[in-house]
Amino acid sequence: MFPSGSQPDAREVRDFPYSIVEEPALFIPLPDGSRLAARMWRPADAETHPVPAIIECIPYRKRDATSADDERMHPYFAGHGYAALRIDLRGSGDSDGVLEDEYLASEQDDIVAAIAWLAEQPWCSGRVGMLGISWGGFNSLQVASRQPPALGAIIAVGATVDRYHDDVHYKGGCVLNENFGWAASSLSFMSRPPDPALRDDWRELWQHRLAHQPFVAENWFDHQTRDAYWRHGSVCEDYSRLTTPTLAVTGWADAYVNFVAEILEHAPCPRRGIVGPWPHAYPHLAMPGPTIGFLQEALRWWDHWLKDRDTGIMEEPLYRVFCPSFSEADPQRLEVPGEWLAETQWPSPHIAARSLALGNGELQAAEDGTARPRVVRLRAPADNGLQCGEYTPHSSGPEIAGDQRGDDAHSLTYDTDPLDADTVILGRPTLSLRVSVDQPRANLIVRVCDVSPEGVSQRVSYGVLNLCHRDSHVTPSEVPCDTPLDVTVSLNQTCYRFIAGHRLRVSVTTAYWPLVWPSPYPVTLTLHEAESRLTLPQRPPHDTPPVQFEPAVFSGPMQHRIVRAGEQSRDVTHSLTDGWTRHAILDDFGEIAYDHGLTNIASADERYAIHPEAPATATMSKSWRQAFQRDDWQVHTET
After folding, report:
1. By the 8 A CB rule, do 451 and 496 touch?
2. Separation of alpha carbons 366 and 386, rounded Å
3. Which of 33, 246, 542, 588 has the most crowded Cβ, counting Cβ within 10 A?
C-alpha cells in the first residue's frame, strides 16, 4: 500500500511501441451525479486511433498510497496500446461520497456505470478489461458476474470466490484477528483527506466522511455465520454468471490461495490459472520469488480478448503452478527453490488421493495397520502460534510463516518415515478426525509440514475449524462436551515437493495465536487415532507441457522521492514476571515526497497480548498516524 523498491530480478522498461500521455485527474460521472476520480495513461494518438480501456478500481488513493505499484504497471499497458485507468472507489481518495463497507452492490453499480461511460469515450474502442489484486481482484470477479456488455476480460489476482470462507474475516468459522486488524487499517485509510490540489471542496468532503465513516468491524462481527451478508459478492453462489474470460492468479504464500483452483473447476468462462510462490503482491514485484513476466502475460491476455490477436495465451496449459521444495523454513528468503508444473485439466485425472492413518505419532498407509492407535490428549497453551506469520503476508520477512518446531511442540504430531523418493502434492489436503473436547467452544488448527533430517519444520499448508461449525456454517451449535465427534478439516490448496529423506508431518492443535482469536476457555482435546486419516492429493510424474515465462519487468518512472526511509519491527516477549506473551508490530513507513507536491508520513502500531493459561485475556489493538503536507497546507489523522 506504500511505495517500495523494485525487485532485484525485475527490469524497468520505458521504451514502448506507443508514446504515452498521462491524465492525472480524470473524473468519471455516475448516474446519481457523483464522480469517481481516476488517473489515466493512454497512447498519445488514442483520440484518433481508439484503444481498449483497462481499469483497476480500489479504495487506496491513486495519487500517493498505490502510486508506486500503479506506475510500475499501468504505463506498460498504455505503452502497448491501451488506456489504463486507476480509479478510486466512491468514498476514497478524490472520489465523491463515503465508503460504507466492502463490496456493496452500490460499488458494483458504480463500476458498471464507469465501464459503460468509458466504452463511449472517443479514445476508447468500446472494449474494456478489468484487473486488480485483493479488493480489485474481488470486484473484478463480482463485476464480471454482472456481465456488463463492454467488459471483455478480467485478470483477478489474490482474490476469492467466497467472502465468508476465504477473506480476512472468518476461516472455517473461526474469527481471524485480521477481522479487526484490517478494519483498523481501513478506518485510517478512509479517513485521509482528499487532495486540495484536485478538489476545492476537500474540507467539506473530508468532514462529511469523518462524520459518516463506519468502523466496519462492527458490521463484520454482526455476521459471524455464512448468511446473506457474505453470500452477496461471493461468486461461488452462482458460477454460471461468470462468463467473462478470466485469468486467475495467486501465490502459495498468499491468504487468497484457494480461488484459482475453484475458478478452474467451476466457472464456465474461458479461463486460465497461474499460482506462484508469492505472497499478497503482483507476480512481477513479489518477494519471495521467483517473479515472472506478469505484465507480458497480462498483455497476451488483453491482446487476445480485447484486440482479437492470436497471442497463444489460450494454448497455454489450463493450470500453471510453481512447485516449491524445502527452503529451511527461512522467511527472509527472496527466492524459494522449486519448479513450474502444468495441468491441462482441473481437477487433474493424474492426481490420486493418498490416505495415511494416524497412530502412535506416526503417519502410515491406511491399509498398513502396523501402528498401535491410541486415544491421546492435548492441552495447548493459548499463545501457541509463534511462527504462524501474518494472515496476509505482503513480503519476505517475519510476515511469512517460519520454522514450526515450537508450534509443533504444543501440538499432536504424526510423521511418516523418511521418504524413499520425492513426493509431490497438488490440491487440497484434508484431515478426518474423531475428537472430543471438554468445552462447548473450541478450535482445531491443522498443519501439514515438511520436516528435514535436521528437524526443521516447514509449513506446507494449514486449515482451521471452529468446532461449533462442525455441521454447518449457517447454523452453528455448541459442542457437546466429552462426546466423540467425526469432523473433517480442509486445508488450503497447495503444491509442494517433499524431498527423499524428509518426513511429512501433520500437526493438530487448538490454538494459533495471534492468527486466530482463541476459544474462551482452556480446552483439552482428545483425539481417537483409530478413526483419523490424512488424505493427500498426490501428483505422480507425468508428461505435461513445459512452463515458461518471460523475465519480470516493470514500467516507470516512479514519481516520488523517499525523503526518509521507513523501518519495521516485529517482536514477541514472554514475561517471566506475569507470564503474559506480547506481540508488537511497529511499522514506520517513512516520509515520501510525490512529484505533484504532496508529502506523506505514515506509521502503524499493532499489539497483541494473551496469557497462555487464560485465553479470555486476549487483547489486540491497532493505531495509525498519517500526515500530509502540500505547500502551507498540513493535516494529520490518528485512528
Report:
1. no
2. 32
3. 246
Q: Within the chain, what is the greatest distance between any pair of CA atoms?
A: 78
Distance from the Cα of residue 550 to its chain's centroid: 24
191-241 pLDDT per residue, tens:
999 999 999 999 999 999 999 999 999 999 999 999 999 999 999 999 999
Q: Count CB-CB contacts under 10 A for residue 147.
A: 12
Contact 92, 189 (CB under 8 A): yes
Burial class for 576, CB neighbours closer than 10 Å (0-12, 13-18, 19+): exposed
pTM of the complete model:
0.97
Whether the Cβ atoms of residue 396 and residue 520 lie closer than 8 Å to each other:
no
**In this predicted structure, what is the pLDDT of residue 389?**
96
Beta bridge partners of 170: 175
Contact present, 122 and 45 (Cβ < 8 Å): no
- What does the buried/exposed string (b/e) look like for 322-336 if buried means 16 or more CB atoms within 10 Å of the residue's CB? bbbbbbebebebbbb
d(CA 542, CA 426): 13
pLDDT at residue 4, rounded to an integer: 38
Residue position matching grid coordinates 467466497: 162
Residue 229 burial (CB count, 10 A): 15
Distance CA 369, CA 375 (A): 16
323 with 341: CB under 8 angstroms? yes
- Given this model, what pLDDT does residue 373 score? 75
CA distance 120 to 200: 28
Contact 324, 424 (CB under 8 A): no
Beta strands in 266-419 (DSSP E): 271-276, 319-324, 338-343, 352-359, 362-365, 375-378, 412-415
Report how far residue 137's alpha carbon sits from residue 254's, in angstroms, rounded to the nearest whole number.
Answer: 13
* C-beta separation of 108 from 116 below 8 A: no
Looking at residue 371, what is its pLDDT? 56
Is-contact 54 302, C-beta < 8 A? yes
Strand partners, 335: 289
CA dist 562 and 4 (Å) reads: 9
φ/ψ bin of 200: left (φ > 0), alpha (ψ from -120 to 50), beta (otherwise): alpha
pLDDT digits over 199-213, tens only? Answer: 999 999 999 999 999
Average pLDDT along the chain: 96
What is the rounded average pLDDT of the residues 107-122? Answer: 98
Burial-class residue 275 by CB neighbours within 10 Å (0-12, 13-18, 19+). Answer: buried
Q: Count H helices, E strands: the chain? A: 11, 32
Spell out where 315-408 has E strands. 319-324, 338-343, 352-359, 362-365, 375-378
Instruction: Give the gyration radius of the chain's Cα atoms.
Output: 25
Angle at 482 between CA 382 and CA 509, to 5 degrees: 30
First to last CA, the chain: 17
Angle between helices 135-146 and 105-119 (to 10 degrees): 70
- Looking at the chain, the whole-number percentage of residues with pLDDT higher than 90 is 96
Question: What's the rounded Cα separation, in Å, for the pair 227 and 609?
Answer: 31
- CA-to-CA distance for 301 and 315, rounded, in angstroms? 11
Residue 345 CB: number of other CB atoms within 10 A? 12
* CB distance 602 to 563 below 8 Å: no
Cα–Cα distance, 536 to 459 (Å, whole number): 15
**At 486, is the secondary structure helix, strand, or coil?**
strand
Give me 230's grid cell: 457474505
